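Journal club prep, notes for RB
We'll compare a predicted complex against what the paper describes. Inputs for the heme C case:
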Amino acid sequence: MRRERIVLLIVLVLICSAAVIFSGTESHSQEKKSAENTVSCITAKCHADINKVKYVHGPVGEGACDKCHGEAKGHIENPKKFKFKAIEDISKACYSCHDNFKTKKFIHSPVEEGECTSCHNPHGSDYKFQMVSKGGEVCFECHDDEIIKGKWVHGPAAVGGCIACHEPHVSDYEKNLRAKGSELCYMCHTDKAESIQQAAFVHKPVSEDCASCHNPHSAAKEFMLEAGAPELCVGCHEDIKNQLSNVSVKHGAIDRDKSCLNCHDAHMSQIAKNLKMEPMDLCLSCHNQEYKREKGESVANITKWLAENTDHHGPIKQKDCSGCHNPHGSNSFRILRNDYPPTFYKPFAVENYNLCFGCHEKTIALNPDTTKLTNFRNGSQNLHFLHVNKAIKGRTCRACHETHASNFPKHIRESVPFGVWDLPVNYEKTESGGSCAPGCHKIKQYDRVKKVTNE
Ligand code: HEC
Ligand code: HEC
Ligand code: HEC
Ligand code: HEC
Ligand code: HEC
Ligand code: HEC
Ligand code: HEC
Ligand code: HEC
Ligand code: HEC
Ligand code: HEC
Ligand code: HEC
Ligand code: HEC
Ligand code: HEC
């Protein structure tokens, strides 16, 4: 009975072939031939379920089993005849209808090896593109699913949307990515792309590769970061790392809350150095309060001081707190960029005042006599020299000057802390000199034009 049917089939095929040669259209031939195979291969008894799936592969739907398995002849006697001899034969079969993929620089290993069927069922499946399983499961047949086991998982990776970022077959980019560097992320994060493109300053790794900070799959920290600030930052910024481990005074802002991100934006800014605000506004956004300390001096409210003392020191007028303070830390008290004595008295050495002399002439404290180096003189006697330049009990600048702002001329202080006492300065300025009646001595006057003789 069966043999008869096969004989009949062969006859029919021969007739059809003849018809094709006659008509000269190949596609017509395929259709007919397929129709015949449907009859032969998919029956109630044989391969009945092969097309009972949601996505049936084109040639299977048409019953063109022979396109891959070859001529049906002899199959019943020897079912093994239909097995592919080598894996290469499978991909060769696929490429006989589909374009050869291997035209790009990066070829996914199973594609290179011709293992099409590790991902696609050659007949059909319940998943689009006849995938052997759903979404990321296909990939995890071969790849470790550790990559999505971090605490914070990226949306598309979590739901198996691997191919949103990776080409399954071949790609122009490493790791079979669909785009290079940050462009990959911009495919979906269009709002970030827009704000970054509009920013005046973009952090270099952000314009190069988002994945240098974010794990594209999952990671231990929020936003799929491998580490938070400061570790994340100093991983690249070795110089800052060294600086912070060497300084004796670290800025309190580094150890609090968001650390580096208190001041810097991780991605971009309209302000240089990726600052979150204009530099002085940034400092005053925190120093608009007093920080009380258990031990040592508290940290005064600078906003309040600047509001109450209206003659601001030059660099503050220029809104440059960093001219004197290193925002990260330093080896001088109060995170000062350079040497400056923290005390009322200090034996004189010019280096003690590197901070001030970074911007002002050091000669004001070096020459005992002058007619031009400083206005703080009595006749030609240099009173800066007199007070400051002493082997013992040299007065430091702070004895007379405020560094941030004052209500007295030349940033002279109203008073200066002297132990527990707020020592008053009582400075008065005149046309060609001035006077003071500090807690240190009786009232003394100076005049540049007509030298005054004080008692
Ligand atoms: C696109 C190529 C292709 C077409 C078309 C095709 N097959 Fe297959 N078939 C394969 C491949 C590849 C294998 C797996 C061979 C291997 O792994 O050794 C296979 C395996 C089989 C097997 C072995 C059992 C299994 O499922 O793995 C049967 C049975 C089979 N095919 C029947 C059919 C029938 C019936 C048709 C037509 C309705 C058909 N095939 C059409 C490629 C195809
Ligand atoms: C006889 C020709 C032929 C062979 C051989 C063949 N295919 Fe196909 N394939 C088709 C046709 C026809 C379609 C349906 C195309 C369509 O619907 O646009 C198709 C569709 C597909 C699709 C789904 C594409 C889509 O857009 O839905 C995949 C995946 C696929 N084939 C993989 C393979 C693999 C893997 C092999 C080798 C095992 C293979 N094909 C061998 C003809 C073939
Ligand atoms: C690592 C898994 C994997 C392997 C291996 C693989 N594919 Fe695919 N293939 C896919 C996925 C996933 C899609 C769906 C692609 C998409 O949505 O862009 C696809 C889509 C296709 C399509 C339809 C869309 C298109 O890009 O033309 C064809 C045809 C196809 N594959 C053929 C093959 C052939 C032929 C091989 C072997 C040389 C192969 N695939 C190997 C995963 C794979
Ligand atoms: C049949 C096994 C297999 C499957 C299935 C598979 N891969 Fe691969 N994949 C490999 C092998 C093997 C390599 C090469 C590994 C290597 O070089 O370390 C690789 C490499 C990769 C690479 C790195 C490429 C590179 O240049 O280093 C990526 C990305 C990748 N696969 C993604 C996927 C995705 C996404 C899927 C699911 C769509 C997938 N793979 C499915 C076997 C597979
Ligand atoms: C948002 C885009 C994106 C998604 C979604 C995504 N990947 Fe990746 N994948 C990448 C990028 C980017 C790299 C390169 C990372 C690098 O170079 O550090 C990568 C690398 C890989 C690698 C190579 C591993 C390595 O460390 O070199 C594999 C394997 C991989 N991905 C598999 C997957 C699988 C499986 C999925 C789905 C669960 C997936 N990817 C989802 C973007 C993505
Ligand atoms: C295929 C689209 C797609 C691509 C490509 C993509 N993402 Fe995403 N990403 C998402 C989705 C969807 C979410 C979840 C959105 C949400 O929760 O608001 C997300 C969330 C994120 C989050 C967390 C945001 C939050 O507020 O919690 C970060 C960080 C992120 N992605 C970074 C990246 C990086 C870096 C890349 C490139 C390596 C990238 N994404 C590529 C789709 C994508
Ligand atoms: C230098 C490291 C670094 C790079 C590079 C980087 N990010 Fe981020 N990203 C972070 C940090 C840190 C956070 C957390 C922000 C915070 O806490 O203020 C973050 C947060 C995010 C968020 C969620 C919060 C938000 O700002 O919307 C998204 C989305 C994001 N990044 C996308 C990207 C994209 C896209 C790129 C590439 C264009 C990228 N990132 C490059 C460090 C980085
Ligand atoms: C993947 C390495 C990397 C990471 C992580 C990183 N940076 Fe950067 N950063 C750079 C590079 C590269 C530059 C550019 C340096 C240059 O041009 O000299 C830079 C520049 C900067 C600049 C100076 C910008 C300018 O305009 O001069 C600041 C500020 C900065 N980073 C802060 C941070 C902070 C804060 C973090 C942590 C959230 C961080 N960086 C994490 C690599 C990194
Ligand atoms: C209190 C605010 C603040 C904090 C906290 C802070 N920075 Fe800065 N950072 C600044 C300011 C202000 C500048 C600009 C200094 C200048 O112009 O001299 C700067 C400059 C930089 C630069 C540019 C190079 C340089 O020295 O000029 C890098 C890199 C940098 N910071 C990294 C970091 C890292 C990493 C952290 C965390 C460990 C951090 N910053 C914490 C305020 C801060
Ligand atoms: C995010 C908040 C924040 C910002 C912004 C900030 N600081 Fe601070 N600052 C602190 C904290 C907290 C302390 C430590 C207070 C304490 O010790 O209790 C501190 C301490 C100081 C000290 C005293 C240092 C010491 O140890 O004696 C100075 C000086 C200082 N900051 C200057 C600045 C300058 C200049 C800027 C701007 C570049 C700035 N700060 C920005 C929070 C901030
Ligand atoms: C001309 C240099 C200079 C500039 C500019 C400067 N500072 Fe200072 N700052 C100092 C010196 C010196 C001290 C130590 C004063 C002392 O102890 O007498 C100090 C002390 C401080 C302190 C500790 C306050 C306290 O309790 O004694 C803070 C906070 C501070 N500065 C913040 C700022 C901020 C904010 C700015 C910008 C608005 C700024 N500084 C600009 C030199 C400067
Ligand atoms: C970053 C540079 C810079 C540093 C550091 C600096 N100053 Fe000044 N100072 C200036 C500028 C600029 C002016 C304004 C000069 C002008 O208006 O002609 C000024 C003005 C003064 C004046 C008033 C001069 C006048 O003629 O009105 C005094 C007093 C003064 N500074 C004292 C100091 C002391 C004390 C220090 C050290 C604690 C110091 N400065 C550190 C830049 C600096
Ligand atoms: C004993 C008090 C006193 C001490 C200590 C003192 N100054 Fe002065 N300084 C003055 C007075 C008073 C003036 C105003 C002179 C005038 O214009 O009549 C002045 C003026 C200045 C000026 C304006 C330019 C000038 O010389 O006329 C600068 C700059 C200055 N001092 C810097 C310093 C520095 C830096 C130190 C520490 C090394 C210091 N002063 C220490 C009292 C002092």
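Talking point for the session: The radius of gyration is 42 Å.
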